[in-house]
């Protein structure tokens, strides 16, 4: 261990804490370099496609999930100077590959054209097909490539966790939240497309999707994963899960607001894309509910006609935005975000979370729910 890792700094923070973003990137880059080489050994064409997936993973993202997992581990007594630090970093970094799978597949299902200001995976591969004048339909090739690369990311996530180097007991404990998380996020993805298809505009349906599509694998299970690796008891796991579920839903509600009102230059996605994609969010559910209570059938009709309309232009988008605001739906969602953040912080304060993790998690909660992208 180097002298720098042995010295605490900044109110209980150690080098591994302070260097966390860099250490996560290093762990991902090393793993992906090896996987890219293995894919190239199968065939250069597959290697090139796998390389695009590697570039996608390393080309952006806030690393929210592994950051929560790390602080979950630290708050459960994980030793930032211990010999297991590198193994823990590799284990929590694997969450970014779950995220990559979800994003690639989600963009395909939503027919999104951009992600992080760049073409989505299915669009990029369709354009490659068209530029090379290959046989068949470019869009079909792009969709197939996105499905396969999303699957590859999921496979690699399992590989990275299993090969992280955790001791046998920690690896066995980590399996419980990991297995639950994978099923929950896929269940949430299915509910998302199911609700879009059925047109269920209820608040219950929207919150069910938020709970499983976002909260479970963004905050709740990453915290659970970190706690499990550290060998936390059931009380701390319950604290983390309550905190994580509330912050995770609040995180998604902020995302819903940004999806309608956000600045494309900041969010990396076109304004109103969630409406065009047909997302049934709590924001829309509350607006429709309030319009119905007022007997405003015209408002309900205008909102419903905008949801899922790929040709929604800026003029109509502005009218829908005004309706969402005038009906009080925006304020109601902001209040829900504040209430969830408050209840999450209460749960965190009541738990036996070790410092500096407790303070860091509180800071992360506020940052996640007040962000602009």
TrEMBL record:
Matching InterPro entries: Isoprenoid_synthase_dom_sf, Polyprenyl_synt, Polyprenyl_synt_CS
Pfam families with a match to the protein in the record: polyprenyl_synt
Coiled coil stretches, renumbered: none
Organism superkingdom: Bacteria
CDD domains registered for this protein in UniProt: Trans_IPPS_HT
Gene3D superfamilies per UniProt: Farnesyl Diphosphate Synthase
Cofactor(s) in the UniProt record: Mg(2+)
Protein keywords: Magnesium, Metal-binding, Transferase
SUPFAM superfamilies (UniProt xref): Terpenoid synthases
Keyword NAD in record: no
Family: Belongs to the FPP/GGPP synthase family.
Designated name of the protein: Polyprenyl synthetase family protein
């Amino acid at each position: 261990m180097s002298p720098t890792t042995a010295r605490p700094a900044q109110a209980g923070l150690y080098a591994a804490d302070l260097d966390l973003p860099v250490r996560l990137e290093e762990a991902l880059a090393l793993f992906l370099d090896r996987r890219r080489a293995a894919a190239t050994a199968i065939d250069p064409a597959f290697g090139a496609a796998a390389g695009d997936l590697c570039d996608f993973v390393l080309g952006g993202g806030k690393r929210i999930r592994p950051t929560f997992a790390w602080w979950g581990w630290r708050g459960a007594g994980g030793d930032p100077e211990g010999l297991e630090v590198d193994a823990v970093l590799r284990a929590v970094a694997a969450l970014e590959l779950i995220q990559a799978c979800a994003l690639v597949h989600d963009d395909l299902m939503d027919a999104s054209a951009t992600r992080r200001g760049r073409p989505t995976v299915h669009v990029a591969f369709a354009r490659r097909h068209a530029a090379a004048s290959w046989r068949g339909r470019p869009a079909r090739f792009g969709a197939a490539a996105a499905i396969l690369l999303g699957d590859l990311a999921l496979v690699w996530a399992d590989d990275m966790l299993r090969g992280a180097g955790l001791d046998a007991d920690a690896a066995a404990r980590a399996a419980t939240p990991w297995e639950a998380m994978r099923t929950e996020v896929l269940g949430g993805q299915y509910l998302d497309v199911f609700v879009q298809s059925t047109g269920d505009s209820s608040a219950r349906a929207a919150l069910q999707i938020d709970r499983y599509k976002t909260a479970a694998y963004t905050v709740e299970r990453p915290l659970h994963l970190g706690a499990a690796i550290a060998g936390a008891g059931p009380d701390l796991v319950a604290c983390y899960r309550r905190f994580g579920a509330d912050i995770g839903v609040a995180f998604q509600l902020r995302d819903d607001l940004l999806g309608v009102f956000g600045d494309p230059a900041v969010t990396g996605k076109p304004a109103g894309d969630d409406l065009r994609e047909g997302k049934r969010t709590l924001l829309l559910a509350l607006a429709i509910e309030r319009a119905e209570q007022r007997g405003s059938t015209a408002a309900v009709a205008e909102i419903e006609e905008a949801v899922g309309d790929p040709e929604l232009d800026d003029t109509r988008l502005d009218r829908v935005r005004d309706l969402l605001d005038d009906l009080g739906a925006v304020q109601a969602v902001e209040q829900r975000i504040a209430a969830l953040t408050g209840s999450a912080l209460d749960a965190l304060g009541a738990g036996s979370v070790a410092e500096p993790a407790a303070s860091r998690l509180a800071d992360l909660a506020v940052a996640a729910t007040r962000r602009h992208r």
